[in-house]
What does this fold into?
Amino acid sequence: MQNKKIVSLVPLRGGSKSIPYKNIKLLAGKPLCYWVLKAATDSKYIDEVWVSTEDSKIKKTVEALDLGVKIIDRPQEFAQDTSSTESVMLHFMEHADFDILNLIQATSPFTTSADLDSAIELFFEKKNDSLLTGVLHKKFFWTTDGKPLNYNYLARPRRQEFEGVVNENGAFYLTTREILARNKNRLGGNIGIYLFPENRGIDIDEPKDWEEAERLIKGLHNNPQ
It folds into this structure.
């Protein structure tokens, strides 16, 4: 789009304390990572899809999907529990050519190619430098010590008039190469937001999330939105 090379990067680390080999555990008959990799490869705007991993088992699983996904070997220093996602992005930037990087989290398998395409269109329309995904919540939030975070309780708004707040759900991000290089961060400059419906905005983190994810993913692909 607009002569810009858009590349997706999916970090797939082998280690996971909550769910062993979570990124390739079967969800609705497919490895978890399959769902976002398929969404990215089906996008009409994404030019290349890459996986960054340090794990040979994950590498073989991705290759077996036969989606045309490229793989970059991640150094062990960027595959620790303490390693940041930004360190993976910066390592990738040193070895790959792109104008806009689309970081996708495998733990958000409800991301579709339509989401990616719509977000990319929005990114260009709003002249964003980076973009995050989130879910809009029309709820009143407080701190545990009794301070309101997002409204004035003395002038409580009607729900219909309440703008609400966006919860960053981490499904995917868009970042220009310039912002990533300058900020060493996925976000910066003019930041855009792409909203997910609440039922698709969840992230698989704990074993208890898996059963719900199975139900949702089957419903999503039997009744695509």
In short: The mean pLDDT is 90. The first strand starts at residue 6 and ends at 11. The CA atoms of residues 134 and 167 lie 5 Å apart. The chain has one domain: 6-222.
